[in-house]
Amino acid sequence: MTETVLRVVRRKAKPGCEEAYEALIRAMFADASQFPGYLSAQLVPPEAPGDEYQILQRFATEDDLARWNASSQRTLWQERLRAVAEGDPEYRLLTGLDAWFAPTVIPANSPPPKWKMTVVSWLGIFPTVSLLLWLITPLLASWPFLIRTAVFTALVALAMSYLVMPRLSRWMSWWLIKK
Q: Which residues lie below 8 Å from residue 177, measured CB to CB, with a gap of 6+?
């Protein structure tokens, strides 16, 4: 299985070019949406005039993101954006646990507090482990302890990574991320 990739891009629009910058970014999103593995994109305006915009791009895999990065379409959009943006964009990739807890707006250096991430993780782990213990343990009862434990923990890890945590972190974002 592969992990969803979230790329965070930060960049300032040139003064007076904000509307043109936003229009180009949205047009680029439409173009990127035609690429295999593209999942979504969001433009987050700056918190204060003159601050950086954030662009959140989700791709199914790192290979899908790499394909978009290497495309002639993206190169064309980057050239167009240079006319209305200051400097080069700053990129950050989030995968795994980081992507689980990625807020809609990603502050420069303030992920959710660890205690909140721990609580949300437990809210996912407890019912997942309980359900799997109830469903799977009887089927594995005759297996050797270490093999049974390895299979069970692999199932928990897969369920948490691909089913539970992506949804739970989105549902709990109102609490995880202070506005």
A: 103, 104, 105, 112
φ/ψ of 140, rounded to 5, equals -100, 5
pLDDT digits (tens, 9 = 90+) for 115-138: 998 999 999 999 999 999 999 999
Which three-class secondary structure state does DSSP give residue 165?
helix
Which residues does residue 10 pair with via DSSP β-bridges, in sequence order? 54, 90
Distances (CA, A) of 91 to 11, 98, 171: 9, 15, 26
Structure tokens at 168: 């739970």
Distance of CA 85 to the CA centre of its chain: 24
Say how far apart CA 99 and CA 84 lie, in whole Å: 29
| Residue 8, strand partner residues | 56, 92
Residue with tokens 């043109």: 20
Residue 42 identity (one-letter amino acid): Q
- Identify which has the larger pLDDT, 118 or 104: 118
What is the mean pLDDT of the segment spanning 156-178? Answer: 86
**Confidence class for position 174, pLDDT limits 50, 70, 90:** confident
pLDDT at 22 exceeding the cut of 90: yes
Torsion of CA 129, 118, 173, 159, to 10 degrees: -30
User: What are 53's strand-pairing partners?
Assistant: 11
